[in-house]
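Journal club prep — side note

Before the paper discussion, L.F. wants everyone to see what a predicted structure for a comparable chain looks like in token form. Sequence:
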Amino acid sequence: MRSLHVVLPAALAAVAMLAGVSGAADLKLPRVSQKGQVMQTVGLTDVAITYSRPGVKGRVIWGGLVPYDKVWRTGANEATAITFSTDVKVNGQPLQAGTYSLHTIPAKDEWTVIFNTEVDQWGSYAYNDSSDALRIKVQPEPHEFTEWMQFSLPDIAVEKATIALDWEKLRVPFEVQVNTVEFALADARAAMASLAPDDYQTAFRSASFAFQNNVALDEAQQWVDRSISIKETWLNLRLKAEMLAKEGKSSEAIDTAERAIEKGKQDAPPDEVTKIEKQVAEWKAKM
């Protein structure tokens, strides 16, 4: 009887396996390390990271569950995937637009972060360094305890962002740089080259972008003048006034700003009119 109790469960297990092969119900169960995704637009570049989130669960992580000096999937289940919609630089090194599997080699004082062109890998078991597109070195930092591993973009600007891996009491950050101003300026020039006769808004937006980012200022002057020539608004007049003030042409700036105030009293929010009035007062005080 004892042998029957041993054999029977094994037989049942075999039957269950065969049933799975031959078309059992589509059973969905939660993974222990569940799927996560973070997406962020940086300037004009979309950055997306898809990964599985293991937990600490009281275990020794670094040098234990995750060995030092060995390639790691940077998560659980499938290797983490990272996508960039445009060409970028990672810690100053160029990387083409596309999707990469993200592997790491943890060490006590320095990590290697790897962008590999072979996507949809299970773990890092099939990882091959011949498919590496980029490797960078980064320094881990102490961080508040994080039970479930996570990626985030804690610092974002128009042309760069920090990507951070947090788990246990460690943060591993690296920086992504994007060519936002270059891309946007190219789009603005193309839009201005085919500007419709009544499109004062595109001309204003193009001029405003260039002025705010301190690029192509001569073109920005032409673009705002084009906008004003099509239709005067409190917005394009205020922008023109700010350009004149930056050039040191205070009298012209004040005259233009006062025109902006008159337009603004008709169709601008009151607080915006107040802002322009304060600018005029400041410029007059410096004369």
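L.F.'s comment for the group: The chain has two domains: 32-177, 180-285. Keep this in mind when we get to the figures.
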